[in-house]
Amino acid sequence: MELSKLLTTDHIRVPIDAEDKVGVITALVDLLAETGDLTDRDAALDAVLKRESERTTGIGYGLAIPHGKSDGCKKLVMAAGKPVKPVDFQSLDKRPVTFVVLLISPPDQTGPHIQALAKISRLMNIEAFRQAVDKAGSAEELHQAIVTFESHDGE
After folding, report:
1. 43, 72 contact by CB (below 8 A)
2. Which of 6, 18, 69, 144 has the fewest Cβ atoms within 10 Å of its own Cβ atom?
3. Which pTM value belongs to this model?
């Protein structure tokens, strides 16, 4: 699985014009709806918000990975972006979120969902990748950071 093939520039929004986590999640779900990746936008949004209400997806390093399982898509779909200003996701390290990666997959497709979560987590463990994400001022720059560091991911 290549994140850079799922997170193409049309699936990346820099900046996301939202000030709270529901707004950020909604903006990314709407981006997937605009690109035609969702069959049911509302069902997808509900699934992600339900999962978020159960346990935060702010995992640290300024990253949140909101995700959900929904019949609102036919395969794993992803979107990513950077909020205009840091957003409180009640992260495990108590730091605000500056980079958000959204994943939605059908309920019967757990494998790709888990693989994508693991790959994003591994990338965020690379200090140079986090710096590249922080510096990215456009969808193209953010995509390039993913392409560059994914090739060093060791898979």
Report:
1. yes
2. 144
3. 0.94
Query: What CA–CA distance (Å, rounded) separates 139 from 119?
Result: 19
Assess contact for 63 and 46: CB atoms under 8 A: no
Give me the residue label for tokens 């520039």.
Answer: 9
Which residue is listed with tokens 């999962």?
A: 51
Let me know if residue 11 belongs to a domain: yes
Listed residue (104, 112, 78, 85) closest to 23, CA to CA: 85
Q: Which of 97, 83, 98, 104 is nearest to 6 (CA)?
A: 104
Q: Which two tokens stand for residue 60?
A: 């640290």
- Provide the residue range defining the domain that includes 78: 3-150
- Written as six digits, the tokens of 36 are 């035609």
Specify if 155 maps to a domain: no
Distance between CA atoms of residues 32 and 42, nearest Å? 12
